[in-house]
Amino acid sequence: MERWLLPEARVRVRVSLEWGGQVHVGEEEGESSAALEMRAAASAALRAVEGISPEDLRLRLIGIKQIRAFDQEITVVSLLRNTGSPQRLVGAVLTTENPLRTAALAVLNALNRVLGNYLSTMG
């Protein structure tokens, strides 16, 4: 996970995922605020995941939010997969001191079963 401050109160986030001995990178730019940087990190994670697949997984980020439940901060992400009938995917993780990494992990949790099934049938 990398983060760069850009001019005009913008930020660029890069997420790198390793699969099959190759590193797949996703990048996203956004406004420099806590909530919007988390959204950029989640979008960058989606781009990295899409780089693993030879076909379009048709994933879209609906939203990301930190909530408090059971005396714990939790980061929740909502995704939409538009293949055939639309499929809503939700991932949640305990929020850590690194909210951008937490956002990327929430995306991976949302895609856990879909991506696991897909990758197990590839090659």
- Apparent shape: globular
Whole-Å distance between the termini? 28 Å
Distinct helical segment count: 3
Order of the strands making up the biggest sheet: 1-2-3
Uncertain runs are: none
Provide the residue-averaged pLDDT. Answer: 91
Question: Pairing-aware structural class of the strands and helices?
Answer: alpha+beta
How many DSSP E strands? 6
The helix-strand sequence is EEEHEEEHH
Radius of gyration: 14 Å
> How large is the share of residues in beta strands?
35-45%
User: Could you describe the largest sheet, including whether it forms a barrel?
Assistant: 3 strands, antiparallel
Helix content: 25-40%
Care to give the gist of this entry?
The protein is an alpha+beta fold and about 120 residues long. Helix content is about 35%, strand content about 45%. It is built from 3 helices and 6 strands.
